[in-house]
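The records we work with from here on pair a chain with its fold. Each token is a code from a learned vocabulary of local backbone shapes. A record is reproduced here so that you can trace the correspondence yourselves:

_____
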Amino acid sequence: MTRFSWAAVPSVLAIATMLSAAPVAAQDVAREDTVIFDLDRTIKDPNNFNWLTPGTKRMHGAHQAMWEPLFILDFSNGQLDPWLGESFTSNESFDVWTLKIREGVEWSDGEAFNADDVVFTVGMAMDNQEISSREAATVRNQVASLEKIDDLTVVFTLKEPNPRFAVQNFGVLLFGSFLIMPEHIWAGEDPATFAFYPPIGTGPYTYTSSATNRAIWDRNDEWWGAKTGFMDLPEPQRLIWLESGGEESRAQLVATNQMDAAQNVTLGTFEGILAQNPNVIAWYDDLPYSRPSVCTRQLEINHTVAPWDNVEMRQALALIIDRSQIVNIAYEGTTEAAETMFISFNSMMPYIDAVKEAGLGLSDKSDVPAAQALIEANGYTKGSDGFYAKDGVAIEANIHVNSASSEYTRTIDVIVEQLSRAGIKAKSIPVENGVFWGEVLPFGRYELTYSWLSCGSIYEPWTSMARYNNRDVVAVGERSPGFNNTSRWNTAGTAAYTEIVDRMGALSPDDPSVPGLVAEAYAYLAEELPFIPLVQSTKLLPFNTTYWTGWPTADNFYTPPSHWWNTTHQLIHNLEKAE
């Protein structure tokens, strides 16, 4: 098990010193009135809050404290909880949607938030191809036109029917949603280059300061929500997002009460924290401590790169991978092997069962002899060095992985070892977060990569499956729209798959024919492998109750515990000062 060492405590003290010396608002705020969240990456440009362009622009507090969503999906029932919006309804054919905005919402500078802001921001995404965020690309692909009816009403006309339009774009389905910006500030600016600094939002916190390793937000006691009676002011007076510097450092910060909410840690590290600080909790009170997360981990395969353009070579990869080893080594037993592309929530079990009943479920074990038989059938022979080659050229597997989390790199280290033992020269290529999401994935600049791009389905299957349609296939070097089908999977099988998924997409999510359509389409995924599902994602997130209580847990599940999501607004409003 991974354990952290207290020998690094001086670095933690240095962080604390830095924090105390950081620029603050007009008055100091006591530690017991401050919530400190872990930030697992460097803020590349602290003076840029343009979320429409790639990079860390929102998860250092911007969309958790300042930018509020229109709605937030309730994971338990698939319904949208109102926030800035009051309702979002469609016509019978699901191609015209009417948004009703809550009355009395204000930007922090006192200007009204209304239909003009919605029409302006969505129109900005529709009219500017250079705006590259996934949310903007999705809206651009779906919306044909929109119209302001009055100050609190906007009508969206879609390019084609979409029963999931509201939740997919404006409901914080995963991580974030399409965020509305203030027209009175953005108007006349170039949306591809505008820095939006200093930023404003409608949320109960306003921007105070930031640097490459932290961002500070202070409560706005004139927040519209409290003035209108929508919700009380949250108790914390100050919120700080602090770059922890890695797992060992974040463990020390939490254990010494210098951090309240940490990013993912391994089981060994969490047990080390508990030994030092009994006030720290996780999703469960006991093993496995961690909570199942929403994005199944996978190995993405670029279909334009030899030898992975050969379906049998992709099948060989899938046979070599031993998911049980990934579970036991990379995750220390805190997750489970993926049986399908879908997350193992109860709401998704009808579709998982349909795939398994069709004989398309995955084993957690490898079958290396079968994989080697496929490799040898394609003309490769194993040399004295133990690696397969043909015409003097060895099979190589270069796997790009986002270096932002040890979860990612540990998983790929296990896979590299498995492939190497089976006779494939495998190598991990760690890349910085901004490069990974800004260059590697969207432009197809990889052979293999660790990702979770089939993510999206929480209570129905279409959202995830639609990400691998043939309409979104572009050449390597062109940006994949919405990060869809970055594998460049484009065969007759893709076309057949797309047709089935399109039929599914036109149906209401609760239509009884959907599970059968899932199994029919899934046969093409299982055969041609645009990606290989690996494990169910879990997050072991330490929360410190020394200063604050009310954190989401299995016994208090009011919102996901993912404090880098747009849903963090709900979390913050539920925090209470410890007695």
